[in-house]
Design a protein that fits this description.
Layout lengths: L2 H22 L15 H23 L12 H21 L1 H16 L4 H22 L14
Length: 152
């Protein structure tokens, strides 16, 4: 851990979260016939980012920076996750929320910790289907559905 980097990252993410939450209030309350307003998700993400940034800033005050060897950055994992995030954005509409979220989470889990396929598949499937059912069925929101060619 690098105390200086963590401090600056905490400040930057705090500002991004605050702007995200502030700008989400300018989005219309309801869109696409959804009972849940389209401003709810960005507002929630902004608040979560602010809270996590505050936590990061308080943690940087608690720990002492240890003298250690220069840490090696893991560019391979970074670019795999970056590519998966870009693919997620591009494929969300054509493939639907459930499939793209499942694939993104599975890729992320396997990038961070190789092996444990059953655990990764279960968590990815439960999360993607669970969030879809909760948001679309319970909260009456709208997310991209499964593609028509799947027959559902």
């Amino acid at each position: 851990m690098n105390k200086t980097f963590d401090r600056y990252a905490g400040i930057v993410f705090l500002l991004i979260g605050a702007v995200f939450a502030w700008q989400s209030t300018t989005i219309l309350d309801s869109a696409y016939g959804s009972a849940v307003g389209s401003n709810l998700f960005p507002l929630g993400l902004g608040v979560i980012l602010v809270l996590l940034s505050i936590r990061l800033l308080t943690e940087t005050l608690r720990y002492k920076e240890e003298k250690s060897e220069k840490t090696r950055l893991d560019y391979k994992r970074f670019f795999i996750i970056l590519t998966a995030a870009a693919a997620y954005c591009l494929l969300l509409e054509p493939l639907g929320y459930v499939i793209t979220t499942f694939a993104f989470l599975l890729t992320g889990f396997q990038t961070m910790e190789r092996g444990k396929w059953v655990k990764s598949i279960l968590i990815s499937a439960i999360f993607s289907v669970g969030v879809y059912v909760l948001f679309v069925q319970v909260l009456r929101g709208s997310l991209p559905p499964l593609p028509d060619w799947m027959g559902f």
